[in-house]
UniProtKB/TrEMBL annotation, chain B:
Membrane-related topology note: Peripheral membrane protein
Keywords: ATP-binding, Cell membrane, Membrane, Nucleotide-binding, Transport
Cellular component terms (Gene Ontology): plasma membrane
Subcellular location: Cell membrane
Organism: Fervidobacterium thailandense
Domain ABC transporter, first and last residues per copy: 7-258
Molecular function via GO: ATP binding; ATP hydrolysis activity
SMART domains for this protein: AAA
GO biological process: peptide transport
Family, per entry: Belongs to the ABC transporter superfamily.
Protein name: ABC transporter ATP-binding protein
Automatic annotation (TrEMBL), chain C:
Major localization class: membrane
Pfam families per record: BPD_transp_1 (PF00528), OppC_N (PF12911)
Transmembrane stretches, start-end: 21-44, 104-131, 143-161, 167-183, 235-254, 275-296
Residue intervals of the ABC transmembrane type-1 domain: 105-297
Keywords: Cell membrane, Membrane, Transmembrane, Transmembrane helix, Transport
Subcellular location: Cell membrane
Alphabetical GO biological process terms: transmembrane transport
Membrane association type: Multi-pass membrane protein
Protein name: ABC transporter permease
InterPro entries: BP-dependent_transpt_permease, MetI-like, MetI-like_sf, OppC_N
GO CC, alphabetical: plasma membrane
Family recorded in the similarity comment: Belongs to the binding-protein-dependent transport system permease family.
Length: 271, 338, 309
């Protein structure tokens, strides 16, 4: 009952009400997921189409092998490697949200917080230095999070594309004299995206769960890290609260997917 | 008959190089198509009809290769020596094709109009507005009611017959010289079948195009073709004008196909059908490819492959013992004509 | 076009499997891990060199899965002759990697077996009875499928308490849905094909007849699915251990060994690969283990069920 009124109890780990702890940390997680989404979708679909078109050729085998290796990397192993190489060795992408100096500025009262996303707010405030600093901190987690999921999307895209390429309407297009490039990118790809959209739900789940471990590794204070710490300390209210929150996001995500589905498939649009 | 043909297929051999071996789907096919006529290609399913038509369009799977020595001469050009780009400009423009399943042959995510316009815009120098206008005209021509409305509908909003009409509209939108129709009515109801075939005949008269009508349905051939090629096991077994094929077939396979009357020697309700099945191309019998099912075969048939030979002007038969079939015609009226 | 005989069909598939390079790589890797797991006591003797018995020999460990602390310096120590993978938190990484193989097999196989069995039971009931029972069970399946797995496991472990067994319970509870759906679909198909007439009056005997019909057809898809899941199961279990929810500190488990490492890496910056071995060896063990299962699952799927591609 209390939960329905937005009262999720007291968070021991956050030392504040659970809802407040979640809402305060959510922008960090959202920013990470958003940045990861683009490379995942872009690279995954692009390579999946390439592999399908070059079926059983060298490129296809190569892409598939890289994908299966990528898919076999536990996110925390990959994250630790990224941290070791880009932070310990190269010193480029440090863990955390921001450097100390930037953190102080961001916390100051006259720093505008519009979106609560670090990079966007920095641009709004015209602080390009803070923007770069925030970017430096988010690159590592983004690489890690996207690395797992482009492989997944690639596989789905490839098999969906292979199926569509064997369809009769693709042959009809060729019989009309449509150039091969358009056959693939216009006729086949539009259809191949329909099943890809259906797995987007699984992907959203994956991206969200992925943030838990990745935020822990990169010391990013999002809700994933909150949930992980709460679980270790058996802070029941916080774990339940965050899971509830994730589930709500999932429902919203599925709603968006349903809409996308209708965009891609006219047969759904009608009914 | 001394016109030059619009299309001549000579010694066409199309093999698929699969993991299980070389599939000789088409293995030496010859025929001509003249301007304005309808050539029927008939044969049981699996005899190589579709592969023949896809070879003409050069739309085979990557595994399929048209072997050296094959020739496909269209309008004086050997299609097999054209570049992919030159070939692309012929497809949909000078040679168009329609397929068996109108349910799956149209792209589900584009409207009928978009799909017809695409063909027009590819091959003709017109703007989108004109193309749309032409697409609506085409839809009207193939007998689709309310074409201005239908042009913006998706394939799933049309019935099977309407889709096949839309396919025909798309195929004919650039006024091809040759239309290849691969089982165009097999998936449709009988009444709609007749309508579609009638429509094709009308449009053929209007446009003066040649049609290759591919089907396993002997009846469809009888009513629509001018000349007939009978295929079996990737080879032409018999070819002649439609009257000759139906009244005086000389090949045992053709005789079997036409022989849809109850057998007298066995008490049987069902219509006669050729015993056995089409052999798959990996396991053709040695010698004549029909020898494992042929009622007229002799020892020689299992050793040697007969040639396609001219038995009378314009009538080709691939059989050592075609005279036996001839004799049946003479002695009784059991086989053949209906 | 005669029906291919099942036996020769099977042999043809085996031949195809053996011609598939990734299948060979996968099976070899798997064989290697099996050997390491079997011979773990000989590869890394379960003794504590710090504690000697009356004969002056190192004492055998009571529980070989608890890595012995052999030095009191907790900082990682680079590889040396005695400790080829180096040491972390006073424990030998080589020892942990070797015995961790057993832990990985133990978790993976147990969870896969039990969750598949649960899935088969639920799927059979659902497909066999149909109607509202099917409706309810499939709704439940959908709900379970829509919960993020890692989070669900976290919730359950906070309820049950931390520990490897709790993690495994959580993974069974949230891991049976795939098998259930597969079995159900197959039962429905068989029902439609052969039992349409008898479907009204099926007794318990018929239930077993259905199962007998289905299992031979379904066993490969289920196996393929299970082997494909092994990898992600092991990753999830290790992830939970990495977060500190699974195996206790010092347990021979790849995930919890990496948990040690993380703090040391966070502590260094802009200098060197100081602690590379502490990530590399346990990390590679995990990657190769998961890769082996994924390769095998992928190859099996390609060969036995091209539809699933
Ligand atoms: N892509 C392909 N790969 C391998 N074999 C094929 C392929 N396409 C057709 N075939 C084989 O070629 C033979 C002839 O097929 P097809 O031309 O489709 O027959 P039809 O159209 O007369 O029914 C069949 O035995 C078929 O198995
Ligand atoms: S050659 Fe022999 S087997 Fe072939 S069709 Fe003629 S009689 Fe029959
Ligand atoms: Mg065909």
């Amino acid at each position: 009952m209390n939960a329905l009124q937005g009262d999720l109890g007291w968070s021991q780990v956050g030392k504040e009400p659970v809802l407040k702890a979640i809402l305060g940390r959510f922008p960090y997680t959202l920013e990470l997921a958003l940045y990861a989404l683009f490379p995942v979708v872009g690279v995954g679909i692009w390579l999946g189409v390439k592999a399908a078109v070059k079926r059983d050729k060298f490129l296809d085998h190569f892409i598939r092998i890289v994908a299966i290796i990528g898919w076999s990397f536990p996110d925390f192993v990959f994250g630790l490697l990224v941290l070791m190489i880009f932070y310990s060795v190269l010193g480029w992408f440090p863990p955390g949200n921001l450097s100390l100096w930037a953190e102080q500025i961001v916390k100051s009262p006259n720093y505008l917080k519009v979106t609560h996303l670090l990079t966007i707010d920095a641009l709004i405030n015209g602080r390009f230095d803070i923007f770069l600093d925030a970017l430096r901190h988010i690159v590592g987690p983004v690489i890690t999070l996207s690395f797992l999921w482009w492989a997944y999307l690639l596989r789905i895209t490839r098999s969906s594309m292979l199926e569509v390429l064997s369809k009769e309407y693709v042959r009809t297009a060729r019989a009309k004299g449509v150039p091969e490039r358009d056959v693939i990118h216009k006729h086949a790809k539009r259809n191949a995206m329909i099943p890809v959209v259906t797995v987007a739900g699984a992907m959203v789940i994956g991206l969200l769960s992925g943030t838990v471990i990745i935020e822990v590794i990169f010391n990013r204070t999002g809700i994933g890290q909150l949930a992980a710490r709460a679980a270790v300390e058996l802070d029941y209210a916080t774990v339940l609260g965050t899971t509830l929150f994730y589930s709500i996001i999932l429902v919203l995500g599925n709603l968006i997917i349903d809409i996308l589905y209708a965009v891609f498939d006219p047969r759904v649009r009608l009914s | 008959m001394e016109k030059t043909p619009l299309l001549s297929v000579r010694n066409l051999r199309t093999y698929f190089y699969t993991e299980d071996g070389i599939v000789k789907a088409v293995d030496g096919v010859d025929f001509d198509v003249y301007e304005g006529e309808t050539l029927g290609i008939v044969g049981e399913s699996g005899s190589g009809k579709s592969v023949t038509s896809l070879s003409i369009m050069r739309l085979l799977d990557p595994k399929g290769k048209i072997e050296e020595g094959s020739e496909i001469i269209f309008n004086g050009k050997n299609l097999l020596s054209l570049s992919e780009d030159e070939m692309r400009r012929i497809r949909g423009n000078e040679i168009a094709m329609i397929f068996q399943e109108p349910m799956v042959a149209l792209n589900p995510v584009f409207t009928i109009g978009e799909q017809i316009m695409e063909a027009i815009l590819l091959h003709q120098d017109v703007d989108r507005k004109t193309a749309r206008h032409m697409a609506i005209e085409m839809l009207k021509k193939v007998g689709i009611p309310e074409p201005e409305k239908r042009v913006d509908e998706y394939p799933h909003e049309l019935s099977g017959g309407m889709r096949q009409r839309a396919m025909i509209a798309m195929a004919l939108s650039c006024r091809p010289k040759l239309l290849i129709a691969d089982e165009p009515t097999t998936a449709l109801d009988v009444t709609i079948q007749a309508q579609i075939l009638e429509l094709m005949k009308e449009l053929q008269k209007e446009y003066g195009m040649a049609i290759i009508l591919i089907t396993h349905d002997v009846g469809v051939i009888a009513e629509n073709a001018d000349r007939v090629v009978v295929m079996y096991g990737g080879k032409v077994m018999e070819s002649a004008d439609v009257y000759t094929v139906f009244k005086k077939p000389k090949h045992p396979y053709t005789w079997g196909l036409l022989n849809a009357i109850p057998r007298l020697d066995i008490e049987q309700e069902r219509l006669y059908s050729i015993p056995g099945m089409v052999p798959d191309p990996l396991h053709f019998p040695p010698g004549c490819r029909f020898s494992n099912r042929c009622e007229f075969k002799e020892n020689r048939c299992e050793i040697e492959m007969p040639d396609l030979a001219q038995v009378e002007p314009g009538h080709m038969v691939r059989c050592f013992y075609y005279k036996k079939v001839e004799n049946i015609h003479n002695s009784s009226k059991v086989g053949g004509a209906k | 076009m005669s029906e291919p005989k099942p036996r020769s069909e099977f042999r043809r598939m085996m031949r195809k499997l053996l011609r598939n390079p990734s299948a060979i790589l996968g099976f070899s890797l798997l064989a290697f891990f099996v050997l390491v797991a079997i011979f773990a006591p000989y590869i890394a003797e379960p003794v504590n060199p710090q504690m000697l018995d009356e004969n002056g020999k190192p004492m055998r460990l009571d529980n070989p899965y608890i890595m012995p602390v052999i030095t009191w310096s907790s900082e990682p120590i680079p590889p040396s002759k005695e400790h080829p993978f180096g040491m972390i938190q006073g424990r030998d990484i080589f020892y942990g990697v070797v015995w961790g193989t057993r832990t990985a097999f133990y978790i993976g196989l147990t969870v896969t077996l039990i969750s598949t069995a649960v899935g088969i039971v639920i799927g059979s009931i659902s497909g066999y009875y149909g109607g509202w029972i099917d409706e309810i069970l499939m709704r439940i399946t959908d709900v379970f499928l829509s919960i993020p797995f890692l989070l669900a496991a976290m919730v359950l472990t906070t309820i049950l308490g931390n520990g490897l067994d709790k993690v495994m319970i959580a993974m069974v509870v949230f891991g049976w849905m795939g098998a259930a759906r597969l079995i159900r679909a197959n039962i429905l198909q068989v029902k439609e094909e052969q039992f349409v007439l008898a479907a009204k009056a099926l007794g318990i005997k018929d239930f077993f007849i259905i199962l007998r019909h289905i299992l031979p057809n379904t066993i490969f898809p289920v196996l393929i699915q299970a082997s494909m899941r092994m990898g992600s199961l092991v990753i999830t279990a290790a992830g939970l251990s990495f977060l500190g929810l699974g195996a206790p500190l010092g347990y021979a488990d790849w995930g919890s060994m990496l948990n040690f490492t993380r703090n040391w890496i966070l502590g260094t910056s802009g200098s060197s690969m100081t602690y590379w071995y502490a990530v590399f060896y346990p990390g590679m063990a995990m990657v190769l283990f998961v890769l082996a299962w994924n390769l095998v699952g992928d190859a099996l799927r390609d060969v036995f069920d091209p539809r699933l591609k």
